[in-house]
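Predict structure. Chain length: 445.
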Amino acid sequence: MGPPTNLKIENSAENNITYGKEGVRIELTCTVKNGIPAATLIWSKNGLTVANGSNDILLYRFIPTRSDHMQNITCYAVSALLTYPLSQTILLDIQYSPDVKIQYQILKHTITMDCVAEGNPDNYTFYDWEHKSEFNEHIRRIHGTPEGQLIIKKAQNSNENEDDGIYECTVSNGIPNIKGKLDQKGKTSIKSIGPPVFVTDNKPVQIGHFGKSVEIEIYIYDNLNNSEVVIKSMGTSIMIKAKIKSVHTHDTFHGVYITVPGLKYTFDLDLTSENSFMRYTVEACNGVGCNYFDVQVKSAMKRKRNSGIVSEIPLEIHYDEIGTIHDNSASIQVSSNIEQEAVSSPESHAFERVNSHVSDFEQEISSETSLQGLSNSLLNEDGYEHSYETINPENIEIHPYSTVWYNIYENTKICPKEMTIKNKGQAIQIDNERGPWLIIYMKNV
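Prediction complete.
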C-alpha cells in the first residue's frame, strides 16, 4: 500500500504555460505514479470537472476559443491516502484572430474612422479600407494610417452623400481564425445628414404629347426620409400632388454607378398649350436644406405651323405633303384629269404676291435656279409654307421640262386646264397649245 506520487502535466512549458491557437485542438496529458489503491485523476477547468479516470494517465482534448485565453486548468490526483490531493495548474495562452470593430465620428468637414482590433498577439498589420454601397457594390479602396485610422474630407456640395455606404477595414496579427483566414474584417455603415439629393437616374429632358398629361418622374436620395418636393414654373409652385413610392434607384458615388435606396415622386402635368412645353424646376427640401433640379418638357411630336394651323409630326418620322421622288433622273408625267380646287382667301393673297415675282422669274439665268427662286418666294413672312399656292399661268413663261434632276421634291402640283378662283366666279383658261402645266416646290434639305 502507498499514496500516488509524481503527478505532472506533459508538454507544459517550464513556466506552466500551455500555448495554443483559437480553433486548433489542444491535447493535455496528466500522469501520476499510482499507489495501492489507485488514485483518481481529475481535469478541472474554471472549477468544473471536465475529465476523470482511475488510470495513471488521463487525457483531455478540447478546441480552445478566445474565451479560454489566460484561463487556468488543473489536474488533480485524489486518494484516500492523501491528506490533500496532488495537483498541477497550467495557464492557457490562446492566440486568436483579432475581434475587429470600427469607431467613427462625423464632423462638419470630416469623417474619422478607427479600426479597433483586439487579439493575441496585439501587434497588427492594417490594410486598405474598402468603401461599398449599401447593396455591397464596390466603390473604392482608400489608404488609412498604419495605426488603422481613416480620415475622409466631406464633399462640400450637393454630392456629400457619395461618402455614404459601408466601410470595411482589414487587419491581421498573423493568427488565423477558426476558418483558417489570416485577415480579419470589421465594418460599419455611414449615412450623411444633409439636404435631399437628386440622383443620377433623373432625366433632365422628359417627353410629353400636346393635349395630354405627362408623368414627370423625380428620384430623391434622403437619409432623413422627410423631403418636401414641389414642382415650379417660372418660380411659382404648381399645385400638383405627387405620388410617392420607395424604390431602389441609382446614383454615382466617386465615379461609380451604384444602387441606392430612394423615393420616387411622380407629378401628372397637363400639357394644355404650347407654353406647357418649357423648363420646370423641382425643389426638394428637408430639415437640413434644399436642392434643385431642372426638367425640360419637350413634345414627342415635331410642331409645324401651316396656313395658321398648328399640327404635330412625330420627331422620328419625316414625310412630304404631296409625294417624294427619289430617282436621280425622274421623269414626271403630267395629267389633266385632276379635280379642280377652290382657292381660299389666304391663297388669293399668295396669288397676288406671285405676280410681283413673275418678271424676276423670267430673268433667271437657268431653269433650275428659276424653280428655286419661285419656291422660296412662296414662303410666308413667318417662315412657314402654305400647303398650296395658286399661280396665274397667263402671266408666266413656262419652260417645257419633262425631266427634273433633283433627288427629292415635295408639294408637287399638276394644274388642270381650267381653274376657278373662289369668290370671283371666273375661270382662268390655259393655252391649249401648252396643255397641262406643272409647278414644283423644291424641298430645302
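Summary: Confidence is low (pLDDT under 50) at residues 315-388, 398-410, 420-428.
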